[in-house]
């Protein structure tokens, strides 16, 4: 069967969408190459590694979501939806933990010791 794409070459919307799709996949490919570099991962702090891992998981699930859409499968009825929801909850929890550590007041140990030491008083012996 010979494919005749001559009639499709006049559909400007289709051509624009195919070019947009190609550009998007190229950007995704370049980003994944950069993000999958082990040297980049090793330089991250523990908090950044958590965010990185969550982001990579979410990105992979999003790519799979797009694949399902391209295959004509409704991803909202697929198991990937519950996985994306789980990842969103994990991202929210990681943000809460990070915010808690960032905004939690810290006790200055030296200042606390001075307060306690100076707050204690001794009764002087009174002469009767």
TrEMBL record:
GO biological process: maturation of 5.8S rRNA; regulation of gene expression
Subcellular location: Cytoplasm; Nucleus, Nucleolus; Nucleus
Alphabetized UniProt keyword annotations: Cytoplasm, DNA-binding, Nucleus, RNA-binding, rRNA processing
Main location: cytoplasm
GO terms, molecular function: DNA binding; RNA binding
Any coiled-coil regions, as ranges: none
Gene Ontology CC entries for this record: cytoplasm; exosome (RNase complex); nucleolus
Family in the record: Belongs to the C1D family.
Role: Plays a role in the recruitment of the exosome to pre-rRNA to mediate the 3'-5' end processing of the 5.8S rRNA.
PANTHER family cross-referenced by the UniProt entry: NUCLEAR NUCLEIC ACID-BINDING PROTEIN C1D (PTHR15341:SF3), SUN-COR STEROID HORMONE RECEPTOR CO-REPRESSOR (PTHR15341)
Subunit details: Monomer and homodimer.
Name of this protein: Nuclear nucleic acid-binding protein C1D
């Amino acid at each position: 069967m010979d494919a005749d794409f001559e009639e499709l070459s006049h559909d400007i919307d289709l051509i624009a969408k195919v070019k947009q799709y190609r550009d998007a996949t190229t950007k995704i490919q370049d980003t994944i190459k950069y993000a999958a570099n082990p040297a980049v991962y090793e330089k991250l702090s523990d908090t950044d590694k958590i965010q990185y891992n969550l982001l990579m998981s979410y990105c992979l699930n999003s790519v799979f979501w797009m694949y399902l859409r391209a295959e004509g499968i409704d991803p909202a009825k697929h198991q990937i939806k519950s996985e994306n929801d789980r990842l969103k909850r994990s991202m929210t929890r990681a943000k809460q933990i990070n915010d808690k550590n960032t905004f939690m007041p810290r006790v200055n140990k030296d200042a606390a010791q001075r307060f306690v030491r100076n707050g204690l008083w001794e009764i002087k012996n009174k002469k009767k």
